[in-house]
Amino acid sequence: MSKKKSVFICRQCGYEAYKWLGRCPNCQGWSTMQEEILSDGFAKNVPILEEAAGDLKRLDEIESLAESRFLTGINELDRVLGGGAVAGTVILVGGDPGIGKSTLLLQAALGLASREKEVLYVTGEESLGQIKMRAARLCSLPVPPLKVLAETEYSRVVSHIVKHHPQVVIIDSVQTMIKSELNNVPGSIVQIREITASLVQLAKKKQIIFFLVGHVTKEGTLAGPRLLEHMVDCVLYFEGERYQNFRILRGVKNRFGATNEIGIFTMESDGLQDVQNPSALFLSRQPSGIAGSAVVPSMEGSRPLLVEIQGLVTPSYFGGTPRRTSTGLDPNRVAIIIAVLEKRAGLQLYDCDIFINVVGGVRIIEPAVDLGVALCIASSFRDKPVQTGMMVVGEIGLTGEVRPVSRVEERLKEGEKMGFNHCILPRDNIGGTVISKVKKEKLDLGILEVATLAEALDLAIVR
Predict the structure, then answer these.
(1) What are the tens digits of pLDDT across the range 27-50?
(2) Full-model pTM
(3) Domain ranges of the chain
(4) Exposure string over 374-411, b if 16+ CB within 10 A, otherwise e
């Protein structure tokens, strides 16, 4: 009996080696190499001259395809997809267990089927009876004619697709699918990579929309090599605390729409519900007159979103290195802001524990919220609140200057709609076309301009 050959594949980038390595030479990740058994099912190498070449055409001779988008009936999902799903795309949806991925896609399947679209829902984790129970709970009207298949063998799933010609296929989940010709267990890197590649080819050939549910690792990334995120057209992450009722759907890649777009939902007994006014949701319990709280207008994709940032500064009584903890923000960015506050604003923070939190579980990556982070830290350190009805926006430089931000008008409109009276803006954002448009629209919002972090602290924090 011949010995089975094996290969070691990096879980993060897909790099292959014939022996175990402690560190991946490609992505420099530690302990990411996983052993996989090579199968006879892989196609043998064929000399390139013997292969049939594809059709070669000039770009100006190719007929343009009309962009047809399929609306799911879930407004927030359609927003993240860029106005609906485009035919022939593969969409990968990831998230923690129990966060609501299956619920979201079953609701989308029911919405598409109710719009007379041919939809096939493939499940490898539930029985048909369980799917019917969930559909009855999610759909108050009579259940639409949605085709459901409980199957994990890839070849049998494809035979149903070829037979019934669906326009949309939802696979829950791609880790449960298996190709029998590959001698690997379901969920292995080889199985996931081969099945995803085959589904991408099928989607392009048949112009079918595929929604793939992907499990995540303990680090919060999609299971399998990062190669999968490059293979598909759209990658969505479903975020949120399992013990809270709101969820955030974030688009990190989209070939047919804006990236970093987010959709916000609340988890109710009858499924996920769209949140029409996210700013009101995140500011519903904002404390008044309490030190350590600041409101910033952040741009998430194409929409402005008002979020509350809270900071707590306490003396470090236990000695050693003070703690620096941040939730929802880049900890490296927070460390830079703390250093600037010490050097340029004179705050003695070297012996203090500092905790920063973005209320509502939102993750913010844009530097326009730097000024809000600095103000909530300074407010808590001085034990004096930020002025009532004030929001702040601006990027902080290492020399203590406040740099301009983009899309100021949309941020100001959202703040006025939520009842704020004043907004601190970088001085470079005042003047020119921006201030003229603000005057034309007659925003009932006082604008305070600052050039340095010290000026912002003097204006924002109660004396």
Answers:
(1) 888 888 888 776 554 444 434 444
(2) 0.79
(3) 1-38, 67-276, 282-460
(4) bbbbbbbbbeebbbebbbbbbbbbeebbbbbbeebeeb
